[in-house]
């Protein structure tokens, strides 16, 4: 069985993760938890888990420092970051250390399941991966040059400085690169899909991207970073001005978005880094593109020209959007703020304050209003009796339903029913 350890200074998050991880489905077991990086370090060295889910901002020692120390000690496990903030500097550090995914709270049960399943699939392939790493290590020790693909990925996301990287392959030595970072947006189209299908989507996106790049840019490179992010290294015609080269890269970004949407019905976003004068600037350009993408509002589509929005605001907006969507889809069920708080890993009181600040009303009132509006529409159809409508919108107590209905609509459901009958 795969051992999973949890590190977070919020007890509610730890309890929530323990309850929502589908242990049996993943053939996994709970390996223990810790409330800060120091405790996490001791726990991980003691139980040697396969996967660690960790927060970043914690007392004593933060998550990034804990991962760095474990990596320095050659800990072979996989890391998944679950953070309350979409912080660029920490996201960049996570990429450098080969973190499997960087999730921003709030997350859904399905997101946690999907990321863990994908990570376990990689662990299952670890034998073949270790064989390949052994080959690469032997080749490096023998002084043989890395392949262009290996070199490019190291230039984008590798640990250490660019100066420690092997010399650039011949085709990149005189390059003036611009890095474009892509994000596969997790829409309804990809929600709940299997790990195998997720990998097929990534494979298909890679094929489309490479076909477009081979057609439009003589010198290019493509590499998946982490989770749903990929990087494209571009080196447009040096005879163009910098503004013209950037315009060409934007055109390619839009083409990637459009073609992926047309052929796969998938939504991509992209952002560009600044042009660099040599291959030594590849990593810096990638960081610039990633930072812009992480601070842009998803509603702005492709995103290159989007205005930055506060990341914390974006996190809160997503939580409220999830709550509203959930109410409209499940108004007939027993909906509680406690349940949603556990799903979103946010305390109940804070979530209610956040909802009221954003919508202007409490969550309880919003649920009642949605139910009453639905009840009003059902009664207007004249097909159902009052007690039937009451049950259809989540109220088993008909007198209570009638009281709420009159309070919100100004008339009782029986009056509305009589008027419709006439």
UniProtKB/TrEMBL annotation:
SMART domains: HTH_ARAC, REC
Lineage top rank: taxon: Bacteria
Entries under PROSITE patterns matching the protein: HTH_ARAC_FAMILY_1, HTH_ARAC_FAMILY_2, RESPONSE_REGULATORY
Residue list for modification 4-aspartylphosphate: 55
Residues in Response regulatory domain copies: 3-120
Places the protein is found: Cytoplasm
Entries under InterPro entries matching the protein: CheY-like_superfamily, Homeodomain-like_sf, HptR, HTH_AraC, HTH_AraC-typ_CS, Sig_transdc_resp-reg_receiver
SUPFAM superfamilies assigned to the protein according to its UniProt record, in alphabetical order: CheY-like, Homeodomain-like
Residues covered by the HTH araC/xylS-type domain: 321-419
Alphabetized UniProt keyword annotations: Cytoplasm, DNA-binding, Phosphoprotein, Transcription, Transcription regulation, Two-component regulatory system
PANTHER family linked: HISTIDINE KINASE-RELATED (PTHR42713), TRANSCRIPTIONAL REGULATORY PROTEIN HPTR (PTHR42713:SF3)
Protein name per its UniProtKB record: Response regulator
Organism name: Cohnella cellulosilytica
């Amino acid at each position: 069985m795969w051992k999973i350890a949890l590190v977070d200074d919020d007890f509610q998050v730890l309890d929530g993760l323990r309850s929502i991880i589908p242990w049996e489905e993943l053939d996994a077991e709970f390996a223990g938890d810790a409330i800060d990086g120091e405790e996490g370090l001791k726990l991980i060295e003691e139980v040697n888990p396969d996967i660690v889910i960790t927060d970043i901002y914690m007392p004593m020692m933060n998550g990034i420092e804990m991962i760095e120390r474990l990596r320095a000690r050659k800990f072979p496990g996989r890391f998944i970051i679950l953070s309350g903030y979409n912080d660029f500097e920490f996201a960049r550090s996570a990429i450098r250390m080969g973190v499997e995914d960087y999730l921003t709270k709030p997350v859904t049960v399905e997101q946690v399941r999907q990321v863990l399943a994908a990570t376990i699939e990689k662990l299952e392939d670890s034998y073949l991966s270790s064989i390949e790493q052994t080959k690469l290590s032997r080749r490096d020790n023998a002084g043989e040059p890395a392949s262009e693909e290996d070199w490019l990925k190291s230039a984008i996301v590798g640990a250490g400085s660019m100066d420690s990287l092997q010399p650039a392959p011949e085709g990149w030595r005189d390059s003036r690169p611009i890095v474009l970072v892509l994000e596969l947006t997790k829409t309804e189209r990809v929600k709940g899909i299997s790990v195998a299908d997720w990998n097929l989507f990534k494979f298909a996106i890679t094929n489309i991207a490479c076909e477009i790049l081979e057609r439009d840019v003589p010198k290019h490179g493509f590499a998946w970073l982490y989770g749903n992010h990929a990087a494209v290294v571009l080196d447009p015609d040096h005879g163009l001005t910098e503004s013209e080269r950037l315009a060409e890269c934007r055109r390619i970004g839009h083409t990637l978005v459009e073609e992926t949407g047309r052929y796969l019905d998938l939504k991509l976003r992209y952002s560009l880094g600044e042009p660099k004068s040599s291959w030594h600037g590849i990593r810096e350009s990638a960081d610039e593109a990633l930072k812009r993408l992480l601070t842009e509002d998803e509603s702005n589509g492709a995103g290159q020209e989007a205005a930055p929005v506060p990341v914390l605001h974006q996190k809160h907006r997503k939580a409220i959007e999830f709550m509203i969507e959930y109410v409209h889809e499940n108004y007939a069920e027993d909906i509680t703020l406690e349940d949603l708080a556990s799903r979103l890993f946010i305390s109940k009181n804070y979530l209610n304050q956040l909802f009221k600040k954003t919508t202007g009303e409490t969550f309880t009132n919003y649920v009642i209003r949605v139910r009453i509006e639905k009840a009003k529409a059902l009664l207007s159809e004249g097909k159902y009796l009052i007690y039937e409508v009451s049950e259809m919108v989540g109220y088993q107590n008909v007198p209570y339903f009638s009281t709420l209905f009159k309070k919100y609509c100004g008339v009782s459901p029986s009056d509305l029913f009589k008027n419709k009958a006439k």
